[in-house]
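#lab-general

N.A. 3:47 PM
ok so I finally got the sequence cleaned up, no stray characters, all 313 residues accounted for. can someone with queue access submit it? mine expired

B.Y. 3:52 PM
send it over

N.A. 3:53 PM
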Amino acid sequence: MKPQNYDNRFHGRVTVREALAHSYNIPAVRAAIDAGVPNVIRTASDIGVESKLQPYPSVSLGSFEVTPLEIAYAYSVFANLGVKAEPISILAVVQRDGTLLETRNVKMKRVAPASVCYVMNDVLKDVFDYGTAGRARSLGFQHAYAGKTGTTNNYRDAWIIGYSPRILSLVWIGFDDGHSVRLAGGDACLPIWTRHMNRIDGLVRDVDWKRPEDVSEREIDPQSGMLATPYCPTTRTEIYVQGTEPESVCPLHAGSGEPSPFWPEPPSILEERRGDAPRDPAEIQRRAEEERRRAQQRENSIKRLLRRIFGDG
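B.Y. 4:20 PM
back already:
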């Protein structure tokens, strides 16, 4: 069975922001394969998923059952900028007069770099701004939360999670016998989640995550994903974990650097469309070898980023 996007359409090469905001499945599977599925499972275990996961690429799409508590536990690591805090239901027992009868300490452990979690949180804010949870804005929720919606095959499960540095809330809808709920996460769970969050609005002070020192900014061309030139028609400021920033300028608008890893067509195809492709066999061979070298460089760059996130393994 081949993975498909929720809308049954193929969207080509997209940025991580677009893929997560719109819950595209194909980029998730490709990222799991490039990172190494065993590394994905190990990372899931590190951040709180205790259920048994099998080493198949579809694990990145939630193909194995986990509990809502496990999902909330895992996402709390992002909310805590890489620190895993043991979930407990009772912190202390206090008498009416203030006498402390019992207390428990929360066990904490750093399991992910703060910079990686900060960038992920910034990306997942787009889920509410223009992605699958965008309807929360029309329902009155205006806070800058990060989050994610989810829907399993045949609509068996629907869920949404949203969080800030101070609060995390998750809603899951499903049947014990596996019957379809016939609704996606953004349709079934979002109204419940939004109503709850609007009800507690004001009880928890709004704060944002403090940017780690090893997170940097670059002005990029959103079409190519590379450093913007003065000729790029549109630009945007993007954040990166230091060491993973693009180093080449946009090749689409008077740039002279390497093509973007998100740009789907090599130079030879663009030349053929313009009618200036080389005719000399030796030159054709030389350019083909150059394109292969550039493709390998792009692939190595992506793998370095994935290793930084998931570790070597």
